[in-house]
Amino acid sequence: MEVEMLQIHADALQSSNAAYHEFLLHYKPNECFVYGFVEGKEDPMFYRGLIENHLPEEWELILIRTGNRDNVFATFQNMDWIRFPPKRVCFFVDRDLSEFLEEESCSGSNLYVTDNYSIENDIVTVGTLKRVLEEVLGITELNAIETGKIEEIFEHNDNIFREAMAPVMAQILLWRRARKKVSLDNIQLKELFAFVNAKIVLKKEWSSPNARVQHIATRLNDTASPPHELAASEAEFRKKQGLKRYIRGKYLLWFFVQCALEIHKAIPTICEKYKSPPKHRVGLGVGNSMPIIAPRIRHPISLENFIIRNYVEYIKGVRTASCN
After folding, report:
1. Neighbour tally for 324: CB within 10 Å
2. Which of 55, 252, 267, 271 could, after both became Cys, cross-link 59 (CB 3.0–4.6 A)?
């Protein structure tokens, strides 16, 4: 076993893949660890809680950030599965727009791909909203009528936002197909939307789909696609459940946080007992939203089943005596 560990460390020194290098340095064949590779810095906040809830007390999870989706795939493809048990080493990636793009894809029993665009998409539910309002923003003890009002506001806002983003996502899809390198984080949604009494509205100057697309193209120093191409792209996007599943997750997260904050601000108009908005229990903003919201979401069944099929089954198959 000492020879094997020496070989692992020698391989780590020779590896040009930083994530794989880190994995080799962490890997302990006979100790109670399971391993996972994720994309970005916020992904562990989403995955860790659910995974650790399924692990026995003496087992630990090590999640390694690779930087992006391509790096996760590259590490997955280069892994020596004779040497490392697949159920012990898992990979987690966002689906992104892969349903629309002709890209080489990876598959494997230990590779998890999100049901929707990204992990953020699973945050945007009325159930998560109610928990955030109560546990983070201090809005408690609402009656059934008041809760119903909040649910109606959220559903209204959610529909407006997704419809407004359809042509934007159609343009992003065309850029992706053309392999254009545009920084999608540079789209500032606060320039497009406003809230009035907790209800989202498009700003007047961006009320037309063409105006929105032209604006984001200017924002990203690019040009908008011809109208007929945009129309065809949007039709395809809608047909493949794009409104429900493929709005970019970071845009949905922005919407969710702003919606929660605006409902909090308008709570005196919704609930008579509040003369002013209650004090936040925790400061909430887009920048710190993932660590605050992630523990309060209901994880997808597909992820839970994946964890059971891999980590849980691996641990069950390992004799207790092998854990030092």
Report:
1. 7
2. 55
Report pTM: 0.90
27-31 contact pairs (CB < 8 A, 24+): 27/84, 29/1, 29/4, 29/5, 30/1, 30/322, 30/323, 30/324, 31/323, 31/324
Give every CB contact of residue 181 below 8 A, 6+ residues apart in sequence.
none
What are the beta bridge partners of residue 199?
196
pLDDT of residue 322: 58
Q: Report the alpha-carbon distance of residue 172 to residue 230 in Å, rounded.
A: 10
* Residue at token pair 């845009």: 251
Residues in the chain: 324
CA distance 105 to 151: 38
Largest CA distance in the chain: 71
Helix, strand counts (H, E) of the chain: 14, 6
DSSP structural state of residue 100: T
CA distance 172 to 168: 6
Copy the structure tokens of residue 256: 């969710």
Alpha-carbon distance of 303 to 307, in angstroms, equals: 6
The string of DSSP codes covering 251-277 is HHHHHHHHHHHHHHHTHHHH-TT-SSP
What are 26's two structure tokens?
């962490």
Strands (E), the chain: 33-38, 60-65, 89-93, 111-113, 193-196, 199-202
How many whole angstroms separate alpha carbon 299 and alpha carbon 54? 13
Which tens digits make up the pLDDT trace of 70-128? Answer: 999 999 999 999 999 999 999 999 999 999 997 767 889 999 999 999 999 999 999 99
